[in-house]
Write a structure and sequence with these properties.
The protein has one domain. The chain is elongated. Helices cover about 90% and strands about 0% of the residues. The longest helix has about 35 residues. It has about 80 residues and is an all-alpha fold. The model has no long low-confidence stretch (mean pLDDT about 90).
Length: about 80
């Protein structure tokens, strides 16, 4: 039963990876806009939108990495039993 959790984590990581690849252009644009926060005269709401977009993509990428690591760790641990 624990192996199913490993497969589930890997599947979730794969789905999130496909979503990241599909939205790669908006993700790169969102990260590249972080420099405009300091250089231009944006309003507070525009700055928060840019900062929130960057935080979203950072959390998205961290979730992908954690789910793959956890899934492979579970699979490796329970494949010997």
């Amino acid at each position: 039963m624990k192996k199913v959790y490993g497969y589930l984590c890997i599947a979730i990581g794969a789905l999130l990876m496909m979503a990241f690849i599909y939205y790669l252009s908006p993700a790169l644009i969102s990260v590249s806009k972080i420099t405009t926060i300091f250089n231009s005269g944006l309003s507070a709401s525009e700055r928060l939108m840019i900062f929130g977009g960057c935080i979203y993509w950072i959390i998205h990428i961290m979730t992908i990495i954690i789910s793959f690591k956890l899934g492979f760790k579970i699979m490796r641990h329970y494949s010997n039993q």
